[in-house]
Amino acid sequence: MTVSLPHPASSVVPVILSGGSGSRLWPVSRSAYPKQFWPLVSQRTMVQETALRSHGPGFSAPIVVCNNEHRFIMAEQLREVGITAPRILLEPVGRNSAPAIAAAAVLAAETDPDAVLWIMAADAAMQKPQNVTPALALAAQVARAGRIVTFGMTPMRAETGYGYIEKGAPLAGYDGAFAVERFIEKPDAANAGRMFGSGRFLWNSGMFVFTARTLLQEMEKFEPAVLSAVREAVRERRSDIDFERLDPTAFAASPDISIDYAVAERTDLMTVIPGDFGWSDVGSWDALWELGPQDDAGNVVSGDVVLNNTTNSYVRTDGVLTAVSGVEDLLVVVNEDAVLVTHRQHAQDVKTIVARLKKANRPEATAHRRRYRPWGFYETLIMGTRFQVKRIVVEPGQMLSLQKHYHRAEHWVVVEGTALVTRNEEEILVRENESVYLPLGTTHRLKNPGRIPLTLIEVQSGPYLGEDDIVRLEDVYSRA
Q1: CA distance 327 to 428
Q2: Domain architecture of the chain: domains with CATH
Q3: Other CB atoms within 10 Å distance of the CB of residue 455
Q4: Paired residues of 204 in beta bridges
């Protein structure tokens, strides 16, 4: 659902931060394709829901900050929901939220130093977006008066997984806004219970509203090293297709610090507006159980699931039939190459499992069998000692790089669509049920000249089949 601002004095600029790996939602969320790119709470992905929440009257085109590896996924997902002119700012390295937000503010200030920015994470849910409109309108007014605003969510329970904000005195002239007394880190159960019962504390949503000018002034005051590095990174940025690449040397010189530590907990301009947005940071599978439609036995299911004598459980499968019987309070998540089963009380422990998988160099920790590329995707079907079988899907009008391999030959069989294949000096049109052979060392390229996706089966053979045996000679997507 889209939020519309009633007759704003000027447009609000949404800033969407798309970082993190979402390891607590493994095995679906992995660093190569994290949770913001998955449809977890609706038919749209998390980042699509976030972008649509700030799209329409009263809003400018969004500034999206993400890393280089996710740039084409981000652009495509935004395009799918009609966000056609985003400014996608690419971080060369992760430096936490303060440098990312400062970069967005510097970029916005080039056009309008007094632009009002609404900072949002790409992977949070809001089930009551109608309540956002009045709160955001008030926040924009307070921000134009030179203050920094955050939204505090009305707590539903004594939650230990969120940080808290203590409300201070009401802000004169702005009914519904309060000074911030203090921020509190994630508490233990006893302190969470006391704060919940007091009525003075709100969940910290991590959303902020301020003008670019105000944020940059406060960054200059508290973290000048961050601002200096970020200003240079923005000034020396390079445009690349639909993306703006921050200068890697300058950005890497920035200290690694969150916006909370850099500004929010130090400034005397901090303001909180309480709200009931149906907000969740979707930080665990248990959160998705809470957000989902529960049946009469308290179960939430997604995919091809059969339950028997099961209560208060979350069961998700992205393919294979999953049957669960005689259990309660379980989380069961079935992916194409991994299965997670845990008690709901231990939902936060999933990140420990991911850490162990990474330590063991297991590929399942970071990537799926399906690997997304700017031209489409591929997935491994069979892996042998000297051969590998993949399914490759190329979107209409897209093409792979012009490349060659030193250790493998390839055989392509088209099963849907039409392929235009470059093989050394010749171009070959390969139709459905036709194939082409590419001997070791052959310079080759694959293009989809048609209007439907091109699907082919690739059979690789040779002594080494790693992805790093790709020598790119030419690439329209500026990959090395």
Answers
A1: 57
A2: 12-280 (3.90.550.10), 285-359 (no CATH), 370-474 (2.60.120.10)
A3: 18
A4: 152
